[in-house]
Design brief:
- The protein is elongated and about 75 Å long.
- Helices cover 30% and strands 11% of the residues.
- With 201 residues, the protein is an alpha+beta fold.
């Protein structure tokens, strides 16, 4: 992907998001059991109702944990949960779309299982096989980076000399953070003139 950082919109919805049923309806998140899902979620013998629990209870084709631990969840609660998750996802999809037309949506990560197979505003919802390990793959292939943001005087040195020096410092900073020396390269340089400065750097 030819960009330093993708356009990201975060919402409090994932596989470990806590689900609560109230007289006024069902709430999902934004708090979550997070990495403790395998000990705290109902299907894993815990005592916290999560989106994964409600998804397992509402879909007989999903085999996660012990289904018997969520048999007590009410049909009305499960229905309300599904509607809530669908609405949350459709809202964020609409926010992120750059075209009014329906677009395909690719869902990956452990939380993809909680999403419905159809969403308004999408042409199709894609959940690739083994997509649950996407987070681990992303962490494994992530590149080490370094950024230096500084102010320098050009009174005694040229912009080119300063850029070369700062680039070298940025590369060394990346190496110190774990990057391989022979793989480090500069991907972006931006210089902005300051019309007035009372200090020299």
């Amino acid at each position: 992907m030819n960009f330093s950082y993708p356009d990201v919109k975060s919402i409090g919805l994932g596989g470990g998001s806590i689900v609560r049923e109230h007289d006024a309806g069902t709430t999902v998140g934004p708090d979550s059991v997070g990495y403790k899902i395998q000990t705290e979620a109902l299907v894993f013998g815990g005592n916290v109702a999560t989106t994964t629990d409600y998804t397992v209870a509402g879909n007989g084709n999903i085999t996660i944990g012990d289904r018997s631990q969520v048999q007590h969840l009410s049909p009305s609660g499960i229905s309300s949960f599904k509607a809530k998750v669908k609405a949350m996802l459709e809202k964020v999809v609409d926010t992120m779309k750059t075209s009014p037309e329906d677009l395909p949506v690719l869902l990956v990560g452990g939380g993809a299982v909680i999403a419905p197979d159809e969403l308004i505003g999408t042409s199709r919802v894609i959940k690739p096989e083994y997509s649950g390990v996407a987070n681990a793959i992303g962490a494994a292939i992530a590149r080490v980076s370094a950024v230096i943001d500084t102010v320098k005087s050009t009174e005694s040195r040229s912009v080119a000399d300063l850029v070369a020096q700062i680039s070298k410092e940025a590369m060394q900073k990346a190496v110190e953070s774990g990057a391989a020396q022979d793989s480090v390269k500069i991907v972006e340089v931006e210089t902005l003139p300051l019309p007035v400065s009372t200090t020299q750097g």
